[in-house]
Write a structure and sequence with these properties.
Blueprint (H helix, E strand, L loop, with lengths): L1 E7 L3 H7 L1 H7 L4 E5 L10 H4 L5 E5 L10 E5 L5 E4 L4 H4 L4 E6 L2 E7 L8 H26 L3 E7 L23 H12 L4 E2 H5 L26 E5 L1 H4 L2 E6 L15 E5 L5
Helix pairs in contact: 5-6
Amino acid sequence: MLTVSTVNVNGLRAAAKKGFLEWLAATEADVVCLQEVRAATDELPPEAGAPDGWFATHAESTLFRGRNGVAVYSRTRPTATRVGFGVPEFEASGRYVEAWFPGLVVASVYLPSGEVGTLRQDQKERFMETFLPYLVELRAKAAASGCEVLVCGDWNIAHQEIDLKAWKANRKNAGFTPGERAWLGRVFDEAGYRDVLRGLHPDGPGPYTWWSYRGKAFDNDSGWRIDLQVATPGLALRATSAVVERPESYDARWTDHAPMTATYDVSRG
């Protein structure tokens, strides 16, 4: 069995002080993907940035210090790693890293959040435009090497109405615009990937993975499902469970997201 978790830590140094280290020590995951690390590797405490028992592959942002940053932690050493997906604008932005293992490629991605009507949304659209063909390329390259692909991360898009509670109020907002939702549909329909959690739990609402710190969003479970594990079909079919590790209470949170964890029976051919 292979267990993989993905979580936006909303600043790894802060998360480490609030419960991330305890979560990491207790998790049964074989691979953990992080987003929004928000620190250079030499700025992280070793127990968070290079924890004992894990091989840590980081992609930090060298363009904007203290921003972005993704990582893949694994209990076995990757056979190869890659930072970025070949597009100059995003190579040093700390938004993509992948690790190769026998039979499997695991990537951690952090899409721009965007903001409709601003340059931030333009950046998000450029990322989507260039990332989709890379996903197609990655799937073909991995298949030629006998590998499945698992792209984990904060995709910053809720795909369907069941993926956020206040969907009517957010139809024109970043993360739920028709264009963004259609693009994520292309990841599934054109690039041929699968939404692992939805494959096991097709009905909503939720489960959500992000809740604003504002108001009582968490207490009211007024959230968004934007943290996904997206897999090639062969791996998606082997998923036996997919859960969101929602904290029991507001004060137990160490990030405004929650880990999304899936288990795969990789012994099945």
